């Protein structure tokens, strides 16, 4: 259904979605076994952003597209069923024009809990827009672009903004990975006072916590 020019295959990766970095026009192709089914998934990329998705059941011939397909691919990645990612160049506008059902809106409301670090990291790395963080009597809103926090502001429990708000979130990390709730899809029109200078530290901190958990399980 989707055709492009083959660029290469990557098998050594920590996060399959990170492979999209540097892809200006094209798609990522993955495959996995789902019980007795063999599935092929496509993640359509434009300017490093996810704009479309499709999953085909190779044996049964059925297809799902759009957000449903993207969610199915995310579950396969989370369950470590994806072993390789093929990268293709393609005319994205032509694909979306011919198959509009493949379009995704990954900014629609999505909710994950802090103790599900795998799903939280995937959401942070794919989301583009506002995200609310809730933890009891404290709440913040951050603006995320594919894993980078561009802005932060406390909306309950304090009045911190920008770097100060992000530092507060980092100090609460121990509680947030136990009881925190993250809701993507919030509207957040931030001001210069809300911008942060080190937008990578939030995801880096979560990745370190995930590695720590994995190491602890090994002992």
Report what the structure shows.
The radius of gyration is 18 Å and the shape is globular. A six-stranded antiparallel β-sheet has the order 1-6-2-3-4-5, with helices on one face. The protein is built from six helices and eleven strands. It starts with a strand and ends with a helix. The model has no long low-confidence stretch (mean pLDDT 86). Helix 3 runs antiparallel to helix 6. The protein is an alpha+beta fold and 219 residues long.
Proportion of beta-strand residues: 35-45%
* Distance linking N and C termini: 46 Å
What low-confidence regions span 5 or more consecutive residues with pLDDT below 50? none
**How are the strands of the biggest sheet laid out side by side?**
1-6-2-3-4-5
Count the strands? 11
**General shape:** globular
> Could you give a short account of the major beta sheet?
6 strands, antiparallel
The number of helical elements comes to 6
- SSE series: EEEEEHEHEHEEEHHEH
Q: What structural class do helix, strand and pairing data support?
A: alpha+beta
Can you give the mean pLDDT?
86
Radius of gyration: 18 Å
Task: Assign a percent range to the helix content.
Answer: 25-40%
Key terms:
single chain, alpha+beta, 5-stranded antiparallel beta sheet, 6 helices, 28% helix, 36% strand
Write the layout of secondary structure elements.
Elements: E1 5-10, E2 25-34, E3 37-46, E4 49-57, E5 63-65, H1 67-78, E6 85-89, H2 92-98, E7 110-113, H3 117-126, E8 128-135, E9 138-145, E10 148-156, H4 163-171, H5 173-179, E11 181-186, H6 201-217
Antiparallel strand pairs: 1-6, 2-3, 2-6, 3-4, 4-5, 7-11, 8-9, 8-11, 9-10
Helix pairs in contact: 3-6
């Amino acid at each position: 259904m989707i055709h492009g020019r083959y660029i290469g295959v990557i098998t050594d990766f920590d996060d399959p979605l990170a492979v999209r970095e540097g892809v200006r026009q094209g798609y990522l192709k993955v495959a996995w076994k789902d019980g007795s089914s063999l599935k092929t998934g496509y993640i359509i990329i434009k300017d490093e952003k996810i704009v479309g998705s499709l999953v085909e059941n190779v044996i049964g011939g059925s297809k799902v597209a759009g957000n449903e397909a993207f969610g199915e691919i995310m579950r396969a990645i989370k369950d470590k069923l994806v072993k390789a990612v093929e990268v293709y160049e393609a005319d994205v506008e032509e694909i979306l024009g011919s198959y509009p059902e493949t379009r995704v809106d990954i900014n629609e409301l999505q909710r994950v809990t802090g103790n599900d670090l795998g799903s939280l990291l995937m959401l942070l790395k794919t989301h583009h827009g506002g995200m609310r963080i809730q933890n009891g009597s404290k709440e913040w809103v951050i603006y995320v672009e594919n894993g980078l926090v561009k802005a932060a502001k406390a909306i309950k429990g304090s009045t911190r903004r920008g770097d100060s708000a992000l530092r507060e979130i980092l100090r609460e990390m121990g509680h947030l990975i136990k009881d925190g709730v993250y809701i993507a899809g919030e509207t957040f029109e931030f001001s210069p006072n809300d911008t942060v200078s080190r937008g990578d530290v939030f995801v880096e901190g979560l990745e370190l916590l995930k590695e720590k958990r994995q190491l602890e399980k090994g002992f």
